[in-house]
Specification:
Structural class: alpha/beta
CATH superfamily of the largest domain: 2,3-Dihydroxybiphenyl 1,2-Dioxygenase, domain 1
Distance between the termini: 28 Å
Oligomer: single chain
Strand content: 25-35%
CATH architecture of the largest domain: Roll
Order of helices and strands: EHEEEEHEEE
Number of helices: 2
Number of strands: 8
Strand order of the largest sheet: 1-4-3-2
Radius of gyration: 17 Å
Length: 144
């Protein structure tokens, strides 16, 4: 049997109701670099992962909706900056899980102009200093 390994995720697609408003929001509010755009399509660079936005009708049933999580170094500073830029968060940054090593998983959720859920996330040391981000190369606890 041939060995086959999937590569990393290269692109995420989201449908938006107003491509002009979405391009403005994703670039001006979230600060993503617009790669290119044609017609009712727009492509952004999210640190090597491409976000593809397309205009059109959204399904009213969002049970299958996916959440895009953006890793940030300092969740509280990012929360404050995005709030200043007009992002309305569903809730403040909060502890999701504490690993046995003391490393904590923090998240805060918000919505884009079409009501789709996004989140910022950060791993921090559990020593009370929630601004001390964990380096991505540190081992992470895996599900058993």
């Amino acid at each position: 049997m041939n060995q086959f390994t999937m590569g990393p995720v290269g692109q995420i697609s989201r449908r938006v109701s107003d491509i002009e408003a979405a391009v403005e929001w994703y670039s001006d509010v979230l600060g993503f670099a617009l790669l290119y755009r044609f017609g009712e399509l727009a492509f952004f660079d999210l640190g090597g992962l491409r976000l593809f936005l397309s205009a059109g009708e959204r399904e009213t049933d969002v049970r299958g909706e996916s959440v895009i999580y953006f890793r940030v170094d300092d969740i509280h500073a990012t929360y404050a900056l995005l709030t200043e830029r007009g992002v309305s968060f569903i809730g403040a940054p909060h502890l999701i899980y504490q690993h046995e090593t003391g490393v904590e998983e923090w998240m805060a959720f918000f919505r884009d102009p079409d009501g789709q859920t996004l989140a910022i996330m950060s791993q921090v040391r559990g020593d009370g200093n929630v601004h001390a981000a964990i380096a991505p190369e540190l081992p992470r606890r895996t599900a058993r």
